[in-house]
From TrEMBL:
Its main location: membrane. It is found in: Cell membrane. It comes from Streptomyces syringium. This is EmrB/QacA subfamily drug resistance transporter. The keyword RNA-binding does not apply. NCBIfam families: efflux_EmrB. Residues 453-476 are annotated as: Disordered. The chain crosses the membrane at residues 46-64, 76-95, 101-125, 137-156, 162-183, 195-214, 226-250, 262-284, 290-312, 324-346, 358-380, 392-417, 429-448. The lineage of its organism: Bacteria, Bacillati, Actinomycetota, Actinomycetes, Kitasatosporales. Keywords: Antibiotic resistance, Cell membrane, Membrane, Transmembrane, Transmembrane helix, Transport. It is a multi-pass membrane protein. The keyword Membrane applies.
Amino acid sequence: MSRLSPRLAVVIVYTAAMCMNGLDSTIVNPALLTIARDFGEPVSAANTVEIAFLVALAVALPVAGWLGDRYGTKRVFLGSLAVFTAASAACGLAQDLPTLVLARVVQGLAGGLLTPVGMTLLFRAFPPHERMKLSKVLIVPTALMPALGPPLGGFLTEHLSWHWLFFVNVPIGAAAVLLGVLGVREHVEGTEGGFDRRGFLLATPALGLLTYALGFGPSHGWTSPAIAVSALLGLALLVAACAHLLRAATPLLDLKLLGDKVFGSATVLALVTSAGLMGVLFAFPLLYQAALGASALDAGLSVFPEALGLMLASQAVDRLLPKLGPRLLAAPALVLATAVFAALAVPGVAENAWAVRVLMFCVGLVLGTAVLTVQIAGFADIAPPAMGQAMGLFTIVRTLGGALGIAATAAVIGAAGGSGTHDAAPGPYRAAILTTAGLVALGTLFALRLPKDAPAPPPFDDEPTARPEEGAQAAA
């Protein structure tokens, strides 16, 4: 173990942890009907299992960057991973719905810390000119695992039981924690001033309430009292939080980082691409069922070629980004992604299995290329001391983007008269998919603000002189 490179240990532990977290955001969806039946609960109650995870994840995000800087990225990351793994075991062992929901809340809180702190750990281990090599790593948890979640969840539920949706995390998480303890170095950036309690008390409930409203709004109705109050209160708290964070001397989240042209553009791109991807992964399986009367497992498998396209995208970015630069790679990729998304809504496409497979593969290839390019280029000019704050902001926006994409597509389906049954007309689902195409098209405007050239290597090849020993190298 002592001969394992610390940077390799960071990559392995990060990938394992983020795969667990990314998979858990979508793997439960196909099993909700089975969980409801096993516990004798209505499906609307079982939906709480998924919403509880997403709300808890959003609540933990604002404090992640501060915790990592204050107590050390290794300590916070591995502690969160250990809690996430234990909560996964508790989910699998749950004998009633309240216990399962409570365990999912704990899982979500830990997962909310894992993503930004894990990416901070990874990006501090590799300087900007080396991050292009990380494309094969970054694509797995951020885009591949959410795409694999529905088919894997359907398979495990159908052939084993829904309990295994959570048990699969336990051996992976335990091994990753052990490797991290032995192989990953600590990095404590330190924080100036005290903890921003006002920012925490404003931003945390704001994100929780907005995620709750976005999650339950499509099914419960946007005008229902609980949803309307949550949405309005969440928006009010978010505005108040932004006003405070911009004035505070030591804010919980440094919103001024968004003033950086490249990072700000990359963050907006993360919002729209995440909304488009999660929206189409939500809407297209429903269209597939409406058009063909397919089962939930078949519908989940219909999006599987997207994962294969993502794997190829990681290879493409690694080779093309140094040659073309972020702008010339991301902008055309988003134009192509818009066309592919729109093609999925063309009448007759969903009825053709091979057309579906080819187009979903193209979704993964072109959108994955754009997502990876944005993720690597957006942090090229972020100084190591600000990396934790930047990762926290980026992850919050990307997470809300995914929730917004699902809520928007669900709202369009409902407004267009979609019933969600096998004999439903496919028109509402096609309208929802066109909405996701519009979101991706919007991202093209911000892609044009990305830098033309890829990050340049440091002037010296001697790594210790290129990076401070106690800074990024210590994080390795």
